[in-house]
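Internal ticket #5521
Category: modeling
Description: The requester needs a full-assembly model to guide mutagenesis choices. All entity lines are attached below as received. Residue total reported by intake: 642.
Assigned to: D.W.
Attached entities:
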Amino acid sequence: MIRHLFTLIWNRKKSNFLMITEIFFSFIVLFGVLSLAFFYLDNYRKPLGFEYDRVWVMNMRWNQEKPEEVRNIQYRLKQQLKSNPEVAQVALAASNIPYTMNTSNTGFNYNNRFTMADWFTVDKDFAEVMQVDVAAGRWFTTEDNAAGTKAIIINQALRNEIFPDENPVGKVIREKDNPDRKIVGVVEIFRQKGEYSSDKPGYFEYLNTDYASNGTAGGTLDNLMIRVKPGVTRAFEEKLMKQASQIAQGWTIEIKTMNEMRTSDNKITLIPLVIFSVVCGFLILNVALGLFGVLWYNINRRISEIGLRRAVGAASGQVYRQFIGEVLVLATFGIIIGIIIALQFPLLQVFGVQTGVYVAAILGSVLVIYLLAAGCAAYPSQQAASITPATALHEE
Amino acid sequence: MNNYTLNPLATNNASVDTPPHHQKTVIKLTDIEKVYQTKTIETVALHNINIAIRKGEFVSIMGPSGCGKSTLLNIMGLLDEPSSGTIEIDGASVKSYSDKVLARLRNEKIGFVFQSYHLINDLSVVDNVELPLLYRQLSGSDRRKRALAALEKVGLSARTKHFPNQLSGGQRQRVAIARALAGQPEIILADEPTGNLDSVMGNEIMDILLRLNEEEQTTIVMVTHDELMAKKTERLIRLFDGSQVS
């Protein structure tokens, strides 16, 4: 019977062409949406590499002060904030902290191996504030203040790209026009862009923000990261703001919890998925209505065929299954073309997404299209099955 | 083929019309009534029909348009239910049979030939002939063998890959007969099989039916408007306004 259905649909390919095309496009759009959804889901299940809970971010925008003055104010502010009993630790970090739109990346070269890598400038207290775990080597310490080279800590993704078969700790990266950088440690993962982002190569670069020990050296950083102790409420924000406005007079200070930043950033990340889903939803609705309409039309056009099939021995259940089967076969033609296109993504490693994500998206799309086709076919097929053979044979 | 005579004993009373020279009754209709009812009108299509068709008989049914010939054939073929009365196939009443059992009976015991052929235009000749076999537990190769054998019987072996719209009316009807034969049914019910054909092609089709009846003892019940065709059959049942008149 399956062969018969394939023969029937194949022989009617001209009249079914539009429907097959529509199913194909639905499959491709659905595949795109599901790839994105599974990509996000896959990332969501992976560790972030840091703890955002109970982290508050004080963003600072200063005026015309000289860098040295800014560093002095930031240093004093950090000490002041740290002295609060509600505060567990405070760190200074550059603008590209987690859950911001900011990105800093650069080429990373070693022994003719090259990759692009995100870089995060932080001070020695960052790991404690963000609960970043070091997998190999160590985190930054005061001994890095005196070193002639810049201390950096790479993540595992960067290690995999540049040092696949060797221990990177202790290696010095020498690049023209850049100061030497020495790898002092490796962190497992650090996904600055949050739960839905992939794990990309990156490294932390140490900046000595200890004005007392470093004086005028070093740069300025935009954010004070504050880990508060458990049970601290938003009421504490007022106290922090007061202290900040006293020390950093005239600066624009904004305090947010990282939880708030996370919620806001995740919403922005999910916007494309929501837009694609809506578009896909409309397309699928269109296909559903099309399938329903075509099948309804087909059944009315094929009443005498239904009568014939009943006459030659088809029970009403078989007529029902036949029409459902025809729609599934119709869907199969669209799906086969769709799969051929979709398979190019994992084969050509487009967007660098894991093969498993594409495979899951293909399987999901196949399932959805088949369910859609079967769902749309159910009622018209039931109508076809309920036609009495004598009535059906009377139709020409 | 010239031995067939009209049965002069056909009656319109309640007794069952039985031919003398065949053994087993394959179809028996007793007190069949068929009434089509709408909210406002009640139309009696068949009234007090009592017919027995014996194995190997070739029976024709005649009557003016609208007298209930096709309705009677549909009831015999289990395609339609009577409003009252009993249908027996091989001595068993089909009244309590489910749709599934009725479908199986139609598939195994009855072959249909229609005036307008009822071929599926998107299927090749051989695929059309295979149609009844799709509803049996047969392998693809068995189905194909049987379909080809049936096509050979009607002289269409050379047209197996053609599509219905590439054939003449007579050829289409031969395909329809081959389709009816493919399932090797005991009974063929033919509803005006020559109605759409010219006399030459009509005679060709009639010859095939007569040959099947004679050589393979296939029971045939044929609705026709054509007295000449009806004369070639063993027995004639005449209907008028839904009742048997001879």
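Resolution: model delivered.
Comment from assignee: Residues 2-46+265-394 of chain A form one domain.
Ticket closed.
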